[in-house]
Amino acid sequence: MTNFPLPRIDKDPELKKLLLPYCRFKFGDIWDDEKGKHRIACVDIEDKNSLIKIMGGNKAALSVQDPPYNFVAFKETDTLEFINWCKKWVDNIYTILSDNSSFYVWLGADQKNGFSPLPEFMQLMKSTDFKSKSFITLRNQRGYGTQKNWMSIRQELLYYVKGKPEFNINAEYTDIPKILKGYYKTINGKQTENIERSKSENIRAGNIWVDIQQVFYRMEENVNGCFAQKPLKAIERIVEAGSNKNDIVVDFFSHSGTTLIASEKFGRKCYTSDIDPVYCEITLRRIENFRNTGRTGWQNSNPFFDEILNDKKLKSYLSEKYELKV
Ligand SMILES: C[S@@+](CC[C@H](N)C(=O)[O-])C[C@H]1O[C@@H](n2cnc3c(N)ncnc32)[C@H](O)[C@@H]1O
After folding, report:
1. 66: CA distance to ligand 1 center in Å?
2. DSSP structure string for 217-275
3. Domain count within the chain
4. Angle at CA 250, nearest 5°, toward 294 and 123?
5. Is 131 a member of any domain?
6. Dist. CA 67 → ligand 1 center (Å)
7. CATH, residue 253
8. 188 found inside a domain
9. Is 19 among the domain residues?
10. How far, in Å, is the centroid of ligand 1 from the Cα of 299?
11. What pLDDT, in 10s, does the model give residues 78-116?
């Protein structure tokens, strides 16, 4: 495979302009899966009527949302404005979820700014009808780590419920080997510890998921051009735990389409959307590519590889600005 990554699209408006003609979405469009399973829409999550339209009279069993909390990457705004915005879409999500459903939301915490917006978001959630269930942390380490601080980037995952949804315990087992001994119990007069007693080779997930790697360019699932992709394995764990076959899973900040791929793998229906037609197109290409090749991303290539090869303007723009060789 040619080594040809795409730079971050969000940081380069000119590149976005050159890619737009290859996008099958305009704002307001809804793509319906020919297999009758998924939907991809280009809408604003703030617009309740658009979300209701996507749902087509159905309710979702699981919501996985990953808002743009990185203000530098997205747009400068103060925390209050961000929280007011969150309030609107959290209310919208509540409306389209079934009576017994799960709601997961990813949030960053700015360690140089009182960990905002995480505490403010948690306060906001206390004022809603969702009930808090868990606070999950993903391991965040690159290379050998750092000597100047404990890693400064955080990826927090908050878990709430509406009503009393099922929790599928199978999803709890991880790839983490049994390394920590503990919890001694006497059975038939013999003292045993938990590693001896449990049947699985691995431990359960708990609320610190050290077995999940942040997405980086060497991974098959990597979608070059995207800047905020979440690990597929984390979303697969959520999808397995929080929904059943043929249930509807919603993600209205699709970006690279990770929730869609996890839903496809586990036989769920995914109704997903993004405000930006370029990310809607990438989401669509990701599912098409997965269905055609079994690959979850592009690793050394990118979703617009063929267009870049054939479009002289696009090709020379990328070669000149980024010195990328096709
Ligand atoms: C942090 S990314 C989501 C990453 C995703 N979980 C993944 O694995 O690829 C946030 C996405 O939200 C989209 N977005 C921002 N504001 C939005 C809005 N008001 N409505 C819908 N999508 C929005 C952005 O275009 C961006 O693609």
Report:
1. 7
2. TTSTT--TT-S-PPPHHHHHHHHHHH--TT-EEEES--TTTHHHHHHHHTT-EEEEE-S
3. 1
4. 130
5. yes
6. 6
7. 3.40.50.150
8. no
9. no
10. 21
11. 888 999 999 999 999 999 999 999 999 999 888 878 888
